[in-house]
Amino acid sequence: MKMIFAIVRKEDEGFVIERLNKEKISVTKLSSTGGFLRKGNATLMIGTEDEQVDTVLQIIKEECSRRQEVMMNPAYSAGTKGPVMGYAAPPVTIEVGGATVFIVNVEQFIKL
């Protein structure tokens, strides 16, 4: 048995959970934040049999594909604590999506 921890973007979590549930794979969601953009994430805890690991990984890969997104950054000036009103930095194209996945062996599983 394996425990899969998948850290995905908040925008992708629902699609992953729905697909896993269709395959009768249970998942527990933990809300989390972090990363470069400090955006909302979800950490999915998925306990599964060894034979289903490839299926889980394929679902995560399909639902969390990397894509380009345009981000509008407010302009900041040295010494200020917030954006400078009336000025805008140029939009930046960034790559979003994907997932960080950890797979660990489960020594014992007990459902109470």
Automatic annotation (TrEMBL):
<dbReference type="InterPro" id="IPR010375">
    <property type="entry name" value="CdAMP_rec"/>
</dbReference>
<dbReference type="InterPro" id="IPR015867">
    <property type="entry name" value="N-reg_PII/ATP_PRibTrfase_C"/>
</dbReference>
<dbReference type="Pfam" id="PF06153">
    <property type="entry name" value="CdAMP_rec"/>
</dbReference>
<protein>
    <recommendedName>
        <fullName>Transcriptional regulator</fullName>
    </recommendedName>
</protein>
<dbReference type="InterPro" id="IPR011322">
    <property type="entry name" value="N-reg_PII-like_a/b"/>
</dbReference>
